[in-house]
Amino acid sequence: xxxxxxxxxxxxxxxxxxxxxxxxxxxxxxxxxxxxxxxxxxxxxxxxxxxxxxxxxxxxxxxxxxxxxxxxxxxxxxxxxxxxxxxxxxxxxxxxxxxxxxxxxxxxxxxxxxxxxxxxxxxxxxxxxxxxxxxxxxxxxxxxxxxxxxxxxxxxxxxxxxxxxxxxxxxxxxxxxxxxxxxxxxxxxxxxxxxxxxxxxxxxxxxxxxxxxxxxxxxxxxxxxxxxxxxxxxxxxxxxxxxxxxxxxxxxxxxxxxxxxxxxxxxxxxxxxxxxxxxxxxxxxxxxxxxxxxxxxxxxxxxxxxxxxxxxxxxxxxxxxxxxxxxxxxxxxxxxxxxxxxxxxxxxxxxxxxxxxxxxxxxxxxxxxxxxxxxxxxxxxxxxxxxxxxxxxxxxxxxxxxxxxxx
Length: 407
Description:
Number of strands: 25
Distance between the termini: 12 Å
Structural class: mainly beta
Number of helices: 1
Strand content: 35-45%
Largest sheet: 5 strands, antiparallel
Helix content: under 10%
């Protein structure tokens, strides 16, 4: 299931700034299709799987990288499949990682990927690529009519009904506001027809970001929404929550649980993740904030604090604090993307950054290990400066699939 979606200086300068050395790696060609053996799922709990989608002239390559340290190193990204026929387009698709079911009956413990794909008339087709030896794409839904629009929709993956399988939540423009829909998994696939979760006229589509996380502690993933704070321009956190937990067939409330505002906070100049970075199991919001004239980043942690008696999900967002200062060493907010994943099996999510290498070409994958009270200095875990990798022609996601034996 999913966890709770540019280095402009020379690489040697960046590495020296954080005291790291990078061993050259024989990274496979990002734009080439090879028959590559996938990494074997280690025993025990599921291993986070970083998925990387890379554009091709006539389609895209789907890659994956197990975020498991073996002998002090991480495996290089490995090719899952190539989608180069049948009309697949990198630019006209959005790709999400998850564990959406035992799609083939013999899933191998690597991430499934769903492709939310545009059609020439702006309709949507939903494809699935299993995490299995058979990675042929499966057509799961055709959304023509009924107002469906690829341009006016944003998908996000996560388990909203506590059955252990990821579901697909879709935000869709509806007049001034946003509809929220969910395609539930039945353990083998996502539903062909979605269920409507809620409509809110005050959640303006295009200004709302979404994530899935159990913030209430009831065992069900809630839909966590981030939007501009109406009074300050900072970040307001909203939760779509329903007592019954399943989001199907009943009204869902939308609750504001906190803001990050004042002191230069900007929704437009930040992006958000949510995961368990502190001991205790309660998620936190991680804000990656741009620094104005400085190209770097400040990483803020905003804890979600149980608030018995508070309405709705009974949780409130606490005061944010800086967990890492990346305003030096060549870090760039616009030239990086981040996900959260537990990379060292300590039960805490770590920050994983994919960073452009500018004129040098390619990208580096870094991890910032959580100590439970901050982040350790970034460490390079994959060197993708060769092999055709391009930051501007790729995107990432992460999932925690079930081990193959539990599929």
